[in-house]
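Entry, Tuesday afternoon. Goal for today is a structural model of the target with zinc ion bound, before we commit to ordering more compound. Inputs were pasted exactly as handed over by J.K., no edits. I checked the ligand SMILES twice against the vendor sheet because last time a stereocentre got dropped in transcription.
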Amino acid sequence: MPVCTKCNSEKSATEFHRNGDRRRPACKTCNNASTKKWRDENPEAYKASKKRSEVKHADRVAERHRRWRAKNPERARELSVKAMDKWRTLNPDKARVASRVQRAKRRAQETQRTLPGHDAFIAAIYKTASGLGLTVDHVVPLNGENVSGLHVPWNMQMLSDNQNKRKSNTFAVAA
Ligand SMILES: [Zn+2]
């Protein structure tokens, strides 16, 4: 049986931490004790290293979520719509502010993404849509992740609220 280099006791292999394929020279009890000693003597360094590992962990979780979302776009969308609805119900005041901010952002984007000479046509599209109880949607979103669409008639479609909710916010770019 391996012998701990610190306490010199003979212990079973399971009493030692492993470092990849190699067994750590000191036993778990000794290792834990020296880790604790180091923590007690270096509270600031310990806090910093804890913070670093939390950040690293959060990155890994975010990456795992990102991969899951990429694999399950439909489900991810459903869940995010659901979460958003729930948040809106729980935070009606914040939700009102958020939607006001979003509307302002959208208007700014629309202004930025407009080509001259289509105002009358665009106004007609909006008027028709509102007459039909539909929303004007940009086929390629104005603030797409990879591509940004234009606020022009040929990038517009009329959707019902339900269609609009179902529509992905990401626009797939052909590889
Ligand atoms: Zn030991």
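Residues 52 and 92 are 36 Å apart (CA to CA).
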